[in-house]
Amino acid sequence: MVRRMDGGTGEFQAGDFQAGSFSGAGLACRRGGRMVFSGLAFTVAPGGALVLRGANGSGKTTLLRLMAGLTAAVAGQLAWDNRAIDDPDAHAGRLRFIGHLDAIKPALTVAENLRFWMSLWRGESRDTVITDALDAFDLRRLAGFPARLLSAGQRHRLALARLVVAPAPLWLLDEPGNALDESSLAALARAIAAHRARGGAVVVASHGAAFVDGGSTLNLGDFAPTDDAHWSEQ
What are the structural domains of the chain? Predict the structure, then answer.
């Protein structure tokens, strides 16, 4: 179990989660009648980071959705601590997926959005954790602001702040630097580093900076099909 960190200084509330190794072998995925990738394998150890690279359409988002259990593979298997993942609910509980859709509730304030997600994921709501989430991404001055009035960058920071209110061992981040200014990019890098320091793992899809140090890289172009036999209407 990871160590708890308190203090209200903008650091993440670690909570308790069971760190583990996340891996996949022989993965293949079809989208729109096209085989996007095949024979793909990866491993992310506790405290590790995997950066997904590749041109547009190479399957970075598709792979993240597969990792999150939102897309089915046509071949291969995912594993947690070398055990096949066969319980979708248990797997969903150990990950946080931040994609291009922010899932923000526009009728709620910034703080109310975080309180909603904390209650949903943890079954409780604590002001100290909400405050740390706001501070982690410089949102405290916007705590009472209606989410519908946020800019694109502010909305994305709020989406990322959800990572604070309900810790989980695996983060799946799809282009997390989009719409962020320089100070927010630095906050994201600190958040990822703090998560990894507690034994958490992160997978980041990115065209540019990935905000990780010492991570490994997976180029999806290396797993792209090379002939028309991979096309199908099925």
Answer: 45-71+89-219 (3.40.50.300)
Q: Do residues 217 and 51 lie in contact, with contact meaning Cβ atoms separated by under 8 Å?
A: yes
Query: How does pLDDT run across 204-231, given as a tens digit for each residue?
Result: 998 776 678 888 999 999 999 875 444 4
pTM value > 0.85: yes
Residues 6 or more apart whose CB falls under 8 angstroms from that of 76 comprise 24, 25, 26, 27, 28, 40, 41
Q: Between 110-122 and 152-165, two packed helices, what is the crossing angle to 10 degrees?
A: 30
Q: Which two tokens stand for residue 201?
A: 């793992």
As a whole number of angstroms, the distance between CA 34 and CA 61 comes to 15
Residue 204 bridge partners (DSSP)? 51, 173
**Edge-to-edge order in the sheet of strand 22-31:** 34-44, 22-31, 75-80, 83-84
* The length of the chain, given as a count of residues: 234
* Paired tokens of 185: 């990019």
The model's pLDDT over 142-172, given as tens digits with 9 standing for 90+, comes to: 999 999 999 999 999 999 999 999 889 999 9
CA angle 176, 179, 184 (to 5 degrees): 70
What is the predicted pLDDT for the residue at 179?
85
Alpha-carbon distance 73 to 87, whole Å?
Answer: 15
Q: What is the phi/psi pair of residue 58, to 5°? A: -80, -15
